[in-house]
Amino acid sequence: MSLKVILDCDPGHDDAVAILLAARQCEVLAITTVSGNAPLELTTANALLMCQLAGLDIPVHAGAEGPLLVPAAHAPRAHGATGLDGPPRPDVHTEVASNNAVSVIIETARSHDDVWLVPVGPLTNIALAIRQAPDIVERVAGISLMGGAVGPGNVTPTAEFNIWADPHAAQIVLAAGVPLVRMAGLNLTHQLCVGPNETAALRAQGGIVPEFVAGLFDFYLAGYRERAGLDAAPMHDPCAVLAVTHPDLFTFGARHVDVETAGELTRGMTVADERPGTDATPNCDVAYRIDAAAALELIIDAVCSYG
Length: 307
Fold this sequence. Notes:
Elements lengths: L3 E6 L3 H13 L1 E7 L6 H15 L5 E3 L13 H4 L21 H11 L3 E5 L4 H9 L3 H4 L2 E5 L14 H5 L1 H8 L6 E4 L1 H4 L3 E2 L1 H10 L2 H21 L4 E2 L1 H10 L4 E6 L1 E3 L10 E3 L11 E7 L1 H13 L3
Parallel strand pairs: 1-2, 1-4, 2-3, 4-5, 5-6, 6-12
Antiparallel strand pairs: 7-8, 9-12, 10-11
C-alpha cells in the first residue's frame, strides 16, 4: 500500500474493475471523474456506485464536463446508456467530495512527492491540471495512462477512444515533459481479456461485488460477440493500474509519442516513433507485452476479495 495514486476515470465497465483493483493494490488518495464513456454526471455516479458497493472510503471528485476544444462524445455502444449497463443498478446514496477534480489533482501532487496519476479516460482533467500548475510535472512520481494504440484504433481506424475524445488534452500531457509516462494502448490491452470462465469464477465466489461485476462482464462480452464475433473482451483500464503496481508484468519500449489533433482521417492517432536510430527524444514508455495470465489472476482475485 506504499504506492499512492489518483485514479482519473470515466466508468465504464473496465474503469469499474480498475477502481476495485487499485483499491486493493495501492493507496487511492482520490478518484476523479471526467466526461468520456458517458456524460460526467453518469461517470461520477458510476464511480460513487462502485465505491458504495465495495465499501471503499475514497473521495470522488467530479471533473471536466467535456473536452478542451472538440465536442463531447460518448461510448454507449460499448458501455450502454448509463456507462455501466448490465446488472440491476442500486440507488447511489454517497455524494461527491467536490466538483473540483483539477484542483484536487494539483493540491495532491503538491502535497505528495510520490503520487502517481493514473488516467484511464480522456486526459482532460490531467491536461487542465498541468496547464494551471506546470510545477506538478516534476512533482508526480509518474503518469500511467490507458489510451492510444501503436497500431489500429477502435473508435476510428487510427484512434483509440480516450485519445480521440480529447486529442488536444492528450497532446498537452505527452508534451509536458513528465519524467515518467507509461502508456497502455490497444496493442497491449487486447492481450488481457475476460471471458465466460472469469464470469463463472466471479459467480462461484458470490457476494454483492463479484455478482455485480459478473453482470457487467455479461453485458460487456455480449457487445464484443455482437460487434466482433469474439467470446472475450479486453480489460483496458486495469492495465494502467498494473503498470504502476506490477511493472514487471510488462515489456516497455521507450518511444517518442505525439498525438494528431487535426487530421481529418487521423484525429486522435498516437504516433509512436519506432524508426531505428531515430533522433526523437522518448517521452513515453509504451507497453508492448503483458503477462496476461498473471495479470488476469490479480484482477479476478481483487474482485473476489470483495466477496
